[in-house]
Design brief:
The strands form two sheets. The chain has a five-stranded mixed β-sheet with strand order 4-3-2-1-9. The protein has a four-stranded mixed β-sheet with strand order 5-6-7-8, with no helix packed on it. It is α/β, with parallel strands linked by helices. It has a single domain, classed as Purple Acid Phosphatase, chain A, domain 2.
Amino acid sequence: MIEQLYEPFRHWSDTGSVFIISDTHFNDDDCALMDSNWIAPEEHADILRKAIHKNDTVIHLGDVGDLSVWDAIWKPGKRPHEVLITGNHDVGVEELRKHFDEVFTGPIFVAEKLVLSHEPIQGLDWCMNVHGHDHCPRHHGDAHHVNLAANVCGWKPMNLGREIKGGLLSRQCGIHRMTIDGATARKARHERHKR
């Protein structure tokens, strides 16, 4: 179990690992425009199938593409728990709910120092933003962003628990720490001015 997850999201890690991927764009016409080395949907599906298993959770950060490709990745009875945070290409929330166990239409804070979104969120210098959308490697691995657009992360999903254990969130101070440090600094300045 990933203890750092807020209670409403801990079920994602109850029985297995939590994997995250974004921007698979299965069968989208403009894939070659985004990256001339874009791989075939079947090849990407095979990568996902080998990494993610029945007891796992897979979180897709939007722009799935052809839902029939997504549905064909895992055999019936072998599907992981599937979560979608919709992207700018994903339309028809009611239709999407037929293909995913959970659908969110905007960014979600899943832990004190972790927000998942489709598009990168700027100005959150106290937490980690795991996102997709940006098909260029900027933001990939900077201090506050992990870009999981499929072509940027080498088509492989990120194992969230492994990354957290490896220190993904340790570099983040958290909003509470920023508030405490700010109050401490203000108090010290006030004390200096009193002298």
